[in-house]
Amino acid sequence: MRKQVKTGIVGLDEMLSGGLLEGSTTLVKGAPGTGNTTLGMQFLHSGITDEDERGLLVSFEEFPFSLHRDALSLGWDLRKLEKEERLRLIFTSPRIFLASLQSPESPLNLTIQEWDIRRLVLDSISHFTRMTRDPKELRQIYNRVINGLKREGITSILTSEDSGTGLSTEEKGRLSFIVDNIILTRYVEIDSSMQRALLVLKTRGSDHAKEIRRFKLREGGIVVGTKFEGREALLSGSPRAIAPGR
Amino acid sequence: MRKQVKTGIVGLDEMLSGGLLEGSTTLVKGAPGTGNTTLGMQFLHSGITDEDERGLLVSFEEFPFSLHRDALSLGWDLRKLEKEERLRLIFTSPRIFLASLQSPESPLNLTIQEWDIRRLVLDSISHFTRMTRDPKELRQIYNRVINGLKREGITSILTSEDSGTGLSTEEKGRLSFIVDNIILTRYVEIDSSMQRALLVLKTRGSDHAKEIRRFKLREGGIVVGTKFEGREALLSGSPRAIAPGR
Amino acid sequence: MRKQVKTGIVGLDEMLSGGLLEGSTTLVKGAPGTGNTTLGMQFLHSGITDEDERGLLVSFEEFPFSLHRDALSLGWDLRKLEKEERLRLIFTSPRIFLASLQSPESPLNLTIQEWDIRRLVLDSISHFTRMTRDPKELRQIYNRVINGLKREGITSILTSEDSGTGLSTEEKGRLSFIVDNIILTRYVEIDSSMQRALLVLKTRGSDHAKEIRRFKLREGGIVVGTKFEGREALLSGSPRAIAPGR
Amino acid sequence: MRKQVKTGIVGLDEMLSGGLLEGSTTLVKGAPGTGNTTLGMQFLHSGITDEDERGLLVSFEEFPFSLHRDALSLGWDLRKLEKEERLRLIFTSPRIFLASLQSPESPLNLTIQEWDIRRLVLDSISHFTRMTRDPKELRQIYNRVINGLKREGITSILTSEDSGTGLSTEEKGRLSFIVDNIILTRYVEIDSSMQRALLVLKTRGSDHAKEIRRFKLREGGIVVGTKFEGREALLSGSPRAIAPGR
Amino acid sequence: MRKQVKTGIVGLDEMLSGGLLEGSTTLVKGAPGTGNTTLGMQFLHSGITDEDERGLLVSFEEFPFSLHRDALSLGWDLRKLEKEERLRLIFTSPRIFLASLQSPESPLNLTIQEWDIRRLVLDSISHFTRMTRDPKELRQIYNRVINGLKREGITSILTSEDSGTGLSTEEKGRLSFIVDNIILTRYVEIDSSMQRALLVLKTRGSDHAKEIRRFKLREGGIVVGTKFEGREALLSGSPRAIAPGR
Amino acid sequence: MRKQVKTGIVGLDEMLSGGLLEGSTTLVKGAPGTGNTTLGMQFLHSGITDEDERGLLVSFEEFPFSLHRDALSLGWDLRKLEKEERLRLIFTSPRIFLASLQSPESPLNLTIQEWDIRRLVLDSISHFTRMTRDPKELRQIYNRVINGLKREGITSILTSEDSGTGLSTEEKGRLSFIVDNIILTRYVEIDSSMQRALLVLKTRGSDHAKEIRRFKLREGGIVVGTKFEGREALLSGSPRAIAPGR
Fold it and tell me: pLDDT tens, C193-212?
């Protein structure tokens, strides 16, 4: 059995029966505000502080500064970690990233090797859809990205901007079928409030909890709570209350 | 922790646990008549009267006079504020606004600096969809707009004409993923009446109330009420009553 | 506070807390047979008989005679009113109307001035969609029409052929965001019968009743009744009965 | 008040508070097998036998013989009526029909005048969609057809092949807004059986019953029954039973 | 009254109040595995063994042998019937079939006449959609096929590959409006099992049972059972249980 | 009656009343993570170890190594089986596979004959959609594939990447109508957890269980459990609880 990599999010590691398989790629899909980027940063931060593993965050985010600010508000000082050379942030474009990933001598690959990067977050993989409209070409791009990441046995998290509801994994390029693991984050309306729900939809080569669990964004990051009770059709976003009698 | 900017709408500031982060961009999406423009005007008016911060309202609205009239009916005399040089109204086109925002010497930027503008409302950002049909180009336009606004650390509200229901943030240019905060206004059918509902869907770098709350448009502006009770699937627009037993 | 113009439909004027703002444009959207044209005619007829204000009805209707016939069946003799020069009917095409509206010397504008027209009905604005397929151009057309009407401070009702259900205001040219007021008429299935429902969705610069009310077409015109009881999801067109216990 | 023309279908004439307005055009929309053609034939047959008015049936039907056969199975001998020169059947194409309708000297118009045709059935108007894909052009075609029929004051029934459910009148050419009256026939699932439902959706210039009523196809034609009880959302095709308590 | 042709499926003949009208065309629509082909084969087999009428099966099926195998598994030895010259199987393409049908001297037509074919099954008519993308042309093709079959007074069953649910008969070429009879087969989820449901949606010139009935595929063919009880919205595929109280 | 081939999955063989017909093609459709590939591997593994039948796995999978890893995690050492020449893995492209299948002398066909291959898994057939956008051409490709497999009487399982829910078998190329058997795997939300559901939708030439059953992925492979109780609309993915009373 291969080594497992803790995400550092207690409840999630539980759900993953230990963590993510080393060298696996994990897709984290969710609506805006459901905390995909936070989940990725926490994965890196935990690797650095708990496992002393250096982390690499590749961001296609249009506003670099907001990443630092968001991290700070969660209690993580990214600049400090960068100064200590335990974290590396790369702000680039999908096209450049793909090119670097494929040229062994690129700064990216040199960093990966010299720094012995074990954990990588790509925020967000949705930006690759800007490179082409052809689903076949997009699928090839995804394959190249994932191949490049697997080559070095890196455990990576790919965030995905997903506005949908429910289970639907319909997407150009069939990314969901290529990645090893899928984590869904959703908004669920409960008692006239929006709550965040988290679900492990798929893990390759190991079993996982099937529960749909609450989670919160707090200082310190994501806190996974208990599963929902007395509701059905949670993934629709508008669950129904179940009569106690039932 | 960075300073927070009060919207001046009591219930909403509560939900935002204090207000909007200074320098953040907030998307206010809602159907016609749900009060997006009012929310923006109240944000400016409160800044002027409560915080003595000058405000700038950029409107792509086809009928300038209706803005003044609507404000008056809510008890706000915009012309007076303009005369006192505490408020500046600019009626322009998306194309001109974008160009001015990018040329440092433009009247727009001069106003922003000379007047030391801290609060800006853009009514409505939907008009940028008139500039292109290409989602990639639209996303770039949105980025330029938001970059331009953030450059000066302006706290801005972008209203969005949104005819949809539910949570769906599907939109050309993925605006929802670029802005810092999202506020949704919706119509909800309760007891054979249409009520207005307000929801903070996302705030960057801080937590916020998840409740779906009633609100009213009154003289003086928006008044946020309590959350809805005994209903489920509010965001569908046609909620279901829940049996008390449940 | 500006003067309000009574529609002459008692229940509706109540819902509008007095009537329509003078000089405002009101969109009346509804499925075929829900009485949009009737509402417009009643608005004009009441202006003539109750307020002694002359009215102008611009119709793009393919069958002029049916307009007279329908009016008669409701008890209104349009020909008589025309003879008395208290009502003017113009049967024209969208293109010609738009051109006339923009040329000050056009018969249309002369009529408006010489007759001192205060109330105008356009039946139906949907016909403008026949002029272009480009949403941007359509929006400009709508703006020109509404600007033209507002120039003279005319209070106008624009009927719209709307086959949809629910609240959706999705439409080419975003008309709903340009007009001042929106009234929706709908069919609702109650006790195996189709009933007509009326709703004020939006009024600019004033509050309005949010109730969904029954209405009937009678000799004498529209009679607005009470709101619906014991049903939810009325706007879906297929409401659910609510158990009395709830 | 203008004369009313009985359809000869007892329950339906009731629902129409007497019948169809003389000279009006009625759209009968329904799914295959719901009896639209039967309704039209019964209208003609009743005119001939009860009112001694000659009838004209224009059919675009691909299989003339099936019309005769269907009529026979309902107890109507069309050939006999043709021999007696009380009924005229014309099998033609949409294009030819439209051309004839517009040329005063065409056999069609001569028949209409010489025979003094008061009742006409067009089966089915959906075939005109085969003439063009342009909605504007289609609307003009519909207008020409209906104008042609109204010119002579003919009371006409236009059947329409409609596969939809519910109330939706979405259609190319906006036919529903041009005709005077609309009758919908639908399938409704009740107690694991398909029942036929009939509904008068719109009548111009007169009121009508709003009930959704059962109907059957029997020897002798359509028999309209009582309205449905204890069900809601009938028009969805899959109604819900309502608890007696409610 | 014309002669009726038994399908040989007891329950179905009941529902058809005797059988199919001689010379009529029947569309059998259903999802894969719901037994459309079986229904057709049983119709032919019953004709041969019970009525001593020869049958013709025209198949566009890609795998001839599977037809023989499926028949065998149901207890029907097609090869034997072919040897006895009581059944004729023709495996061909839509294009060739259409051409032969229209040339009087074609082997197909010669067979039909020499063999005095009374019953024909076309499996499946969906394959004609492969001949054109133009709905008008498709409708003409359907008309030619059905005309060709009716010319000889053949009673025919046309199977249709239909993946939909519910009643929707939306289809290119409006086949449902051209055929005489429509039989729908559906899957229905009851008590966590998939059951087969059968429904006669339309019969031309005669009445029919409206029930939605269970059916099974057994050795010997289709066995139609009782109608469903205590469920509503069967045709949705996901029926709701009805409380006994109701 | 022809021989049946056990899948080696106890519950599934039960549902298939013994197994798959020898020489048949089975489509296994499911969402990512529902275990389609596992089902195929187990079918091969069981053939090798229980029936001493050699197996061939053709994979279009982008990451060969993950196949080995996944198998290992389920307790199957594919490399060992390959060394023992009891299993053959071929990683290729849709285009090459199709070409080889059609050339008798291709390594693929030689392997099939020399190894006397009885069981084959194609993972996944969805990749053929990458070869063309034309549904007709796709259907021909599917036919060639399935013909090629049937020629040798091979019993084959074709996995299909399916992101849908419910029963819908809508797909380009109408694959569902060509294959002999269809097995659906689905996610179902029960008590705030995602459970895996398995369903035999269609088997050619034999009956099968209609139940919707739970299944789990364990070391050793798929374990099929009991059917679901007290729920309706399972295939919607969001089932409703049924009151015990019902």
Answer: 999 999 998 887 667 888 99
- List CB contacts of A131: < 8 A, sequence separation 6 or more: A94, A95, A98, A137, A138, A141
pLDDT in tens, chain B (246 residues): 568 999 999 999 999 989 999 999 999 998 888 889 999 999 999 999 999 999 999 999 877 777 888 888 889 999 999 999 999 999 999 999 999 998 989 999 999 999 999 999 999 898 998 888 888 889 889 999 998 998 888 999 999 987 666 655 456 667 888 899 999 999 999 999 999 999 998 887 667 888 999 999 888 999 999 999 999 988 888 888 887 554
Instruction: Please check the confidence at residue C246 and state whether its pLDDT lies above 50.
Output: no
**Contact indicator for E216, E34 with CB cutoff of 8 Å:** no
Give the H or E element holding residue F155.
strand F155-161
Q: Which tokens sit at E215?
A: 């059916």
Give the residue among B153, B125, B24, B40 at the shortest CA–CA distance from B89.
Answer: B40
What pLDDT was estimated at residue C33?
A: 80
- Identity of the residue in E143, E202, E234 whose CB atom sits nearest the CB atom of D62: E143
Query: Residue C98 in contact with residue C60, Cβ under 8 Å?
Result: no
Mark yes or no for CB contact E130/F139 under 8 Å: yes
C151 pLDDT exceeds 80? yes
Nearest to A33 among B143, B171, B182 (CB): B182
Residues of E in CB contact (< 8 Å) with F are 31-33, 62-63, 66, 69-70, 72-74, 124, 126, 130, 161, 163-165, 187, 189, 192-195, 216-218, 230, 237-244
Neighbour-count burial of E181, counting CB atoms closer than 10 A to its CB (0-12 exposed, 13-18 middle, 19+ buried): buried
Contact: chain E with chain A (3+ CB pairs below 8 Å): no
Beta partners for residue E87, in sequence order: E55
Which tokens in the block code for residue B192?
A: 């054979």
Q: How many residues does chain D have?
A: 246
Distance CA F112, CA C37 (A): 75
pTM listed for this prediction: 0.85
Check residue C36 and give left, alpha or beta (phi > 0: left; psi -120 to 50: alpha): alpha
Count the Cβ atoms, other than its own, within 10 Å of residue C85.
Answer: 9
Coil, helix or strand for A163?
coil
Calculate how close chain C gets to D136, using CA atoms only, in Å. Answer: 6
CB pairs under 8 A between D and E: 99
> At residue F22, what is the residue type?
E
State how far the Cα of A197 lies from the Cα of A188, in Å rounded to an integer: 7
pLDDT given for residue C63 in this prediction: 73
Contact A163 B170 (CB under 8 A): yes
* Tokens 């930027």 found at: B109
Chain A residues in contact with B144 (beta carbon < 8 A): none
Question: Which residue out of D29, D171, D174, D240 would a mutagenesis test of the C interface target, given it has the greatest number of C Cβ atoms within 10 Å?
Answer: D174
Residue D114 has, within 13 A of its CA and on its CB side, a CA count of 12
Strands E55-59 and E87-91: parallel
**Given CA atoms F235, F240, F245, F246 in this order, what sign does their dihedral have?**
negative
Residue predicted with more confidence, E77 or C209: E77
Whether the CB-CB separation of A180 and F66 falls below 8 Å is answered with: yes
Residue F175 binned pLDDT confidence (cut-offs 50, 70, 90) = confident
What is the DSSP secondary structure assignment for residue E105, as one 8-state letter? T
Pairing of strands A25-30, A155-161: parallel
Kindly report each contact of residues E216-221 with a partner whose C-beta sits within 8 Å and lies 24 or more positions away, as own/partner.
Answer: E216/F207, E217/E35, E217/E38, E217/E74, E217/F207, E218/E74, E218/F207, E219/E73, E219/E74, E219/E75, E220/E74, E220/E75, E221/E8, E221/E9, E221/E38, E221/E41, E221/E42, E221/E45, E221/E74, E221/E75, E221/E76
Residue appearing with tokens 């006999």: D80
Q: What burial class does residue C51 get, using C-beta atoms within 10 Å of its C-beta: 0-12 exposed, 13-18 middle, 19+ buried?
A: middle
